[in-house]
Each structure stands twice: as structure tokens, then as C-alpha cells.
Design brief:
The chain is mostly beta strands. It is built from no helices and six strands. The chain has one domain.
Length: 129
């Protein structure tokens, strides 16, 4: 059971992009996923077969989550079950980010990026104009 109320007087967000989410209100499950190829090239050569995620093992490997085996003990006393914020001012959200105002039971976030650097063979520098 979700037990607190979120109260925000003023919320401003300028940019939300690339699968990001602004969630106002309670939720049971939040899942964020982002996959990207970051290619740095010394020359502008496009092979035509770029962008196929399954060809790279990083995108096929199962996610290895470490086990949580810590015992936690606490006593909760909510005098007023309200989370209060006067102002929230965000410049930008990008790449599967989540801003969530409210209660959540389960959150899962995953980002996988394959960085590729393609350099010219030594002695074959690109002409600059």
C-alpha cells in the first residue's frame, strides 16, 4: 500500500528527450531502458550496416544483478504522511531518465552503450579541405 502524499507547489522542466519520462502521481512499476551506439570516426565513412544492436554482445548479455543480502531494520513514524517540495526546477532529462513525483513500489533502470572508435590507418589522415 502506498502511504504518503506528494505535494509540489511549482514544477518546471525545460526539455524531456530520448525516452525520458515525467511521472506525476503514484505508480507501481517504473522501468527505464536506453540502448545506444556511440561511434567516433576520424573520417565520414558510413558502411550501411551500423545500428544493428544484436550484433554487439553487450546488448545480448543478460543483466547481472548483484544479490541483496543485507538485513535492514528500521522503525517508521509518519507524523504527517506528506512529502512537500516548494520548487522543482529541472533543466533537462535525457536518455531514459525518469522524474517521478509520487509513490513507487518497484523501479528498474538499465542503460547499455557500445562505444566504437574508428580510426584511419597510420599515414592516411583525412584531407581537411
Amino acid at each position: 500500500m502506498l502511504t504518503r502524499i506528494s505535494n509540489v507547489d511549482y514544477f518546471k522542466n525545460r526539455i524531456v528527450s530520448f525516452s525520458s519520462v515525467v511521472q506525476l502521481g503514484d505508480s507501481c512499476i517504473l522501468n527505464g531502458l536506453s540502448r545506444a551506439l556511440a561511434v567516433q570516426r576520424e573520417a565520414e565513412v558510413f558502411l550501411g550496416n551500423e545500428g544493428n544492436f544484436p550484433t554487439y554482445s553487450i546488448f545480448r548479455m543478460p543483466l547481472q544483478l548483484p544479490p541483496i543480502n543485507e538485513s535492514i531494520s528500521f522503525i517508521r513514524h509518519n507524523r504527517t504522511p506528506i512529502i512537500k517540495a516548494n520548487n522543482i526546477d529541472i533543466t533537462a532529462l535525457s536518455n531514459s531518465s525518469i522524474v517521478h513525483i509520487g509513490n513507487t513500489k518497484h523501479v528498474s533502470m538499465e542503460v547499455r552503450i557500445k562505444h566504437i572508435r574508428q580510426l584511419l590507418p597510420h599515414g592516411h589522415e583525412q584531407n581537411s579541405g
